[in-house]
Design a protein that fits this description.
single chain; about 70 residues; about 0% strand; mainly alpha
């Protein structure tokens, strides 16, 4: 990385950033699992961190569904 002039980023940070991006765009932990090639959903969830806005919209939709039952 020094030869390119780019700042150093560990592969873990790159995987975590990519997984979070995939999750935020698709909302699918299964997609994160497939792209990263990890063996379980639990491991994929460690890498994928949703944006607050995604969590808020999910909560609102879930709450509306429960309220209407």
């Amino acid at each position: 990385m020094k030869a390119t002039g780019l700042p150093f980023r560990s592969t873990h940070i790159l995987r975590k950033g990519g997984a979070t991006d995939i999750y935020n765009k698709t909302g699918s932990v299964a997609m994160v699992q497939a792209v990263l090639g990890v063996s379980s959903m639990e491991i994929a969830q460690v890498y994928a961190k949703p944006q607050d806005s995604l969590l808020q919209s999910y909560y609102k939709e879930t709450y509306k569904k429960e309220k209407s039952l």
